[in-house]
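Hi there,

I know you've been waiting on this one. I reran it after we fixed the sequence typo, so this is the corrected version. Both the input and the resulting structure follow.
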Amino acid sequence: MLKLNGELPFGHRKLVIDVPANTQAITLSGTTVKKGFMYAYLFDANQRLRGCQLWQKARKHLTLTAHNASLGGIAGELPAGEWQLHLYNLEGEERTPKAMQYLCEVECEVECEVECEVECEVECEGAFEPQPEPNDLMGLKSLTPSLTADNTIAFDYSKMKRTESAWYSGDLHAHTCLSDGHNSLATAAEIIKQQGLDFFFLTEHNICHPMLPDLDNVLMLPAVEVTTDKGHFNVHGPKRGLDMRDADYSSAALIQQGLSLIDDEQKAGGVQGSISINHPMMKPWHWHYNEMELAKVNTLEVCCDPTWATSPKATEEALTVLSAMWNAGHRIAGVGGSDSHLAPHERNPQAHEPSLYGDPTTYVYAHGLSGESILAGLRAGQVYVERGCGLAFEINQGDMLPGQAITSPMVTYRLSVEDEFHDYFVELIADGKVIGRHPLKAHCDGVTELNIDMTEHAWLRIDIRRVGRQQNEREFIGLINPVFNPSFPQFSKPTLATWGELVDTLST
């Protein structure tokens, strides 16, 4: 066993691992000395991806054999020769970079007892022993291949889990211990089942899961959270993973590579891929890549981990951004994401409730439960978001969905909530302004019916609020994405092109 330590400022380092013939298993262990993000990507002698992890202060292990792999690994033949471990510290691009210390161990089990040699620029020292049989996948009965050694996604997006057209509930943003989450993949699967969700995207930082749980009633879907100093965005339904072998690691380059994980023709109405900007106004992780083309964005995460202390303020600011996007003619859907990192018994600082997968829940109207249909619903804006109030609604007696163009000036909403123990109200948001507020009835009391004349309005969104204990408190609970009036010219020719132009309009 060889033990390595090193120090990496903002940037990239390549470690060369000479793997001997007849190697039966390779174990890689890594950690950072202090809390921080260190991305690790392992490539074999044939330059194929064999594993990926996000190292933090907690130690992580990766074991590969010909037929099995632990979390983050890709099983297969272990060819002799020069393997490469690519490490990236992506923190500190626009400030004085702080060198991040790491510890790394590599062990090769060979039939002929030949010791594996590792060449690198750091001294061979270490401070820990790897677990003999790391297996973060324990407890899962069935797994579906997702990311391959060729860095392509093998997931079958066309496979149907259910065939009926319906509203399907899910979470678009969540983490496990493959990156910086606290739940194993098996634990995450159990929580997801308990939450009663229909679909779920695992969005690890700059990493795709090689294997996804195959659950009876939940569709687990590939995704990646592209994470840079300029902000984060999710790629839902990518066609491949990020290529991190000698990658250009600047924020701009990673963002452009992330956008390329879906095809433009797919985004425009094909079978795969959706781009979602995450927590756009939640500092210090807010979005500030001003060159981002708004035409490349499908959804905007307006509500992210509502148990985080700054989430309510960030949500209100994100709603303002969403309104500005629609005013400029970009029909981008507002979505939610739990961004949950914690185990159910844990709490965020100052929080009184757990940060759970599925809070908030994003509902997508889809023609069957498959990757293709969920992604198509996201791109079409057939989406609403809610936080456990049991919202039910229909538009024009069920003939219209969010995201669609009106065919007559009058639009009728019928709404109610399941929760009888809190008071709710509806805010009508037209062209970015509140044009009405109305009490929202519980199911047991009937429905709230609203009739709106859209003749003078370009678009109409419904925000759901809960009455708070304090005067004038109006807690955000959900939204129904806009319907729009196609007679307004901005929808055929948007007036703004980039995020920077959008931000400029908000500051004037």
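Quick highlight: The longest strand covers residues 100-110.

Best,
R. S.
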